[in-house]
Every structure is written in C-alpha cells, then in structure tokens.
Protein: RING-type E3 ubiquitin transferase
Organism: Bombus terrestris
Amino acid sequence: MEIKKRIRKLKIASQAEILRSHQRDDDFIKYLRDKIVDVLQILERRIGLLPLIHSDIPFKLIYFFFTSGMGNQTLGEEYTGIVQANLDAQKVPSIYARVLAVILECLGEKALIRLLKRLELSVNHPHSKLTPAAAIFLNSFITKMYTMIPIFILVHKGLFYMFGHYYSLGKRIARVDYAKVYGHRPTDTISWGLKLLGIATLAQCALKIWQSRNSESPFNKYLTVTEKHSNLMCQLCLEKVPTTTTPCGHLFCWFCLTDWLNTKPQCPLCREHVVPTRIVHIMNL
C-alpha cells in the first residue's frame, strides 16, 4: 500500500532513463551468456547445445525470471532509479503482468512469424480445399504481414522515442510502464534529442512502406536473385554455395548468416537491419 501511494506522487520515467536501463540489462545478459558459454566449452557440451548458445532469449528469460519475475528491480532499473508501474491504474503491476511483458518481448515476434509460416504451409498444401482466388489472397496477405510486422514494431519504437510510454509492444499489452523513484532526472535536451530520433524513425517506416508497395513480391525477388547468383560462393566464408537470402536480397550460406545475425542483426553487405526470423532458406522453396 505504501508503494502504491509513492507511485501516485511520481512522474513517468523519461525515455533516456528507460533506454539506459535496458542497455545496462542487455550488457549484463551478454556477460551472463559469455560466462555460461565458457563453462559449456570447458565441459565439452557446446555442440549439443549449439541452438541454445546462439540465442540470447534463454538467457534473457533466466535473467528476467530472477528479477522482474520475482518482483525485484533489474540491475538497469536500480542503476537509473526507475521501477515498473501501471501508471494508468496508479498501482504496481502484478507478477503476471510482468511475466507476460517479458514473454511477449522475448518471444512475441518469433511466435507471430511461426504462426504465419504455418498458415502459409496450410494455404499452399496440395490437399487444401481453398479456391485459387482465396489462396492468392491469403498468400498476398501473408507476404505483406512478413513485411509489415518489423515495420509495425519500428513504428512503436518511434512512438516511444517521441512520447516515452511503453518501451515495447509486450509492455504495452501487459500495461507495464516505468515510474521514477530516485536519482536525478536527465536534462530536457536529451528528451528532445530522442523525440527527433522518433520523428526520423517514423520517417524511415514511411519510406519502407512506400518501398514495399513499389517493389515486387519478396519471394519472386528471392527466386530471381538465386537464378542470377547460383554459381557464386558465400560472401562470408567464400567456400560454400549460398543457400540463404536476406530480405534485401543478398545471398550467404545458412551457418555463416545465422552466426552473423546472432552477433549483429544487420545484412553483412548493405547493413540493412535484418531480423533473424526473416531470412529465407532458398533450398526449401
């Protein structure tokens, strides 16, 4: 009850404080991941747990379980003097809301992409009872969703930079925001800089939407790129035949590209942002 009264007197945490909090949490998660990988290498068990090692998600879930999941502040929240709060209801969010926010933040996009892939397989199944017109419509819808999901997430990030409410879509759904508890606030110039970044982010989203409307189908582009470059080698290892393409159309072998994206979510050639779940294995088409 005392905590709830304190939150009513507090203002929402600024964008800069929330960003610094998440950056510090991400640094600790990377440190935790490196230490666990070192232990697994010593135990000579890395090969069997390779998929686990190449993803930060299990380590994020472990970290947030022992912090937010148990009702505690994360290291980043302690560092910046903020706490999770439902500011609309003027109360501390429940443990269930915190856990839901973490799960959606870590797994939400992957789950949605997987759902779209299952829908795509069902639509194009040889025994599907859909009419040709319905199949064409659903395939067009799925293709647009593959393009729009990352853009929608980017739009939400731009709105966060501008207004400071809800760091992620998962936190918005769970109604988990941040309130300032202690420490000095950053100057207004930092907030205005982030608002400018938000405007630039929204402009980038508008440009991506315009490009997607004026470009050909991604799957046709993948096939065209494959035909033109079928005799080339992977641009990273220069040894294997490229079997995987990024949304921007550059080809690499599967293992080189996934290893690269797990370290840096950018295309190795053009530096365009690439979500690992959106790369396509050409051999499966």
The longest helix spans residues 132-163. Confidence is low (pLDDT under 50) at residues 1-7, 216-231.
